Amino acid sequence: MQEQITLYGDIHKLSPYVRRVELALLEAGATFKTHRFGVYTKPAWFVGPDGVNPYTGKIPAITYGGPEVPPEEPSPLSAKITESHVILEFIADVFPSSQLLPSDPVSRAHVRFFMDAIKNVDGPALDFFYGTSGAYEKLLNGLEAIQKLLPDEGEFAVGEHYTIADASLTPILYFVVVLAKTNAGKFDPELGTKLAEELRSEKLAKLRKYGKGMMERENFKKAVDMEHDKDVIKQLFGDRS
Fold it and tell me: Which homologous superfamily does the CATH classification assign to the domain defined by 5-98?
């Protein structure tokens, strides 16, 4: 019998980091429950000394094992695991038959290398969203860099199976796509228009093809509702589309 798993995420369902974990759990065929709260008013049971993530207070986080309890009352008998990439590797270890992390050492190293490279998109994407100077150029450079790592043939980031590299990359690509579609955020709207043009360009054709394939997967559709996300971003930051 599978141990209980509770995933903690943001109330607006926008965090690409939480979506990474959700995608990995879905691809693994795991049974889990999700609990969401406002990240700007984190409850004591989450950030307190005996909470789910007293170290950084960040989401995502999961509890694993222990008794079935309400999410707001995490058991001291459950393991608390934080940081999206750490959680992804944990899920791959708990569900080895899912092949989320390949069995051979070389392929595992390739997956981990790819995941490390995703930081070239992660940081710039969020910096761009919040209007940080110079973030647009860094984001484009990051997208081009990650595209170079994608295989010329095949649908996955590494190898012939869906791995945690795909679970890591797809949500941040999706986040960038939503920003381009809504042009909503704290960035210059002219840069949002330029971003949309770049995403449609031949220069990013391979990355676009990869993203399209990943976003057509059934488990991605279970985890994501683009219309909901577009509406929430517009409500929070204004409609500039």
Answer: Glutaredoxin (3.40.30.10)
